[in-house]
Write a structure and sequence with these properties.
Largest sheet: 9 strands, mixed
Helix content: 10-25%
Radius of gyration: 20 Å
CATH superfamily of the largest domain: Spore Coat Polysaccharide Biosynthesis Protein SpsA, Chain A
CATH topology of the largest domain: Spore Coat Polysaccharide Biosynthesis Protein SpsA, Chain A
Number of helices: 7
Structural class: alpha/beta
Number of domains: 2
Distance between the termini: 40 Å
Low-confidence stretches: none
Shape: globular
Strand content: 25-35%
């Protein structure tokens, strides 16, 4: 099985953090978001992974070849963003000869067992199977009694809705799905809606009733995913990457005497924390320097800057 990670975007929702790094490279407990996603796919029968990129693409292009993911990684740079459909379509050569493949959004983390979902998909092999879960506020996928998807984003408004669930950001597609993706930019959801309306193929579900999931799309949710991992102990990343305490400190980081941490704190590599500084519920990016006796609460801190997400609670 080959995998595609949709990681191209403008960085708009993640502003102002995206002024400093593209979202795929933003650190989550010591490793880039993209690293967590690709290593999860690599451990779940993915033989190779394709990643599209746009915002600050040069940084992604520099990082990916040097990282050790355990599987080959192929990049697709989109000078003009192609959307979720066009992004997949850009990997036609990469997917040549494949019967099916898996797609993983590049801005979410979850405990979803991709191996189990893969096995469930192989039992039926529909044109598309979307992995769904219950997430109030995100439940805009409608399914019928048979488990088929009959609406997305409340577009068709059918009468036979049995359940409303949320798209996890993971789906399996038969490779003949590429026939429905036009050249250029397109939206996968709109393509799937067209298939549903015209009855051109089954869009089925793989339901994960028990899973942890977090969108990592804006500064508040980026800050929150650290809280969920470090305090909530939620397996949104591999358990081996979760420290035993709510405090993570990277390599070659110096912490001055009297420094005080509370709540959760994640500190990257090559940081310097001055004496008697205080950090509560903070994410500190690699290369940052914090002055002695400085105090930060509910903040994301980088070299020479800090941000307090509005909805950090």
């Amino acid at each position: 099985m080959k995998a595609i990670v949709l990681a191209a975007g403008y960085g708009t929702r993640m502003h102002p953090l995206s002024q400093h790094l593209p979202k795929p490279l933003m650190p989550v407990v010591g490793q880039p978001l993209l690293w967590h996603i690709i290593t999860k796919l690599a451990g779940s029968k993915a033989a190779a992974v394709g990643v599209n990129c746009h915002h600050m693409a040069a940084l992604v292009q520099e990082y990916a070849p040097a990282a050790d993911f355990g599987v080959p990684v192929v990049l697709s740079h989109e000078p003009v963003i192609l959307g979720s459909g066009g992004g997949i379509g850009g990997f036609r050569d990469f997917l040549a000869g494949e019967d099916y493949f898996v797609v993983h959004n590049g801005d979410m983390l979850s405990s979803i067992d991709i191996d189990a979902a893969h096995d469930a998909y192989r039992r039926r092999m529909p044109l598309c199977a979307m992995v769904l879960h219950d997430a109030p506020g995100f439940n805009n996928v409608c399914i019928d009694q048979s488990g088929c998807i009959i609406d997305l984003r409340d577009t068709i408004k059918p009468n036979n809705v049995a359940r409303r669930l949320a798209y996890s950001g993971i789906c399996f597609l038969r490779s003949d799905m590429l026939r429905y993706i036009p050249a250029g930019a397109s939206d996968l959801v709109l393509i799937l809606i067209g298939i549903i309306k015209k009855g051109m193929g089954k869009i089925e579900t793989i339901i994960e009733d028990q899973c942890e999931w977090c969108d990592v799309g804006n500064p508040a949710s980026y800050w929150r995913v650290h809280r969920e991992i470090l305090i909530g102990r939620k397996p949104l990343i591999e358990r081996s990457c979760i420290p035993q305490t709510a405090f993570y400190t990277g390599k070659k980081t110096h912490v001055g005497s009297g420094a005080n941490f509370s709540g959760f704190v994640s500190i990257g590599d090559n940081c310097t924390l001055g004496r008697n500084c205080r950090l509560e519920n903070c994410v500190v990016w690699s290369g940052s320097s914090i002055e002695q006796a400085a105090s930060f609460k509910n903040a994301i801190i980088g070299p020479g800057w800090s941000v307090q997400p509005r909805k950090a609670v």
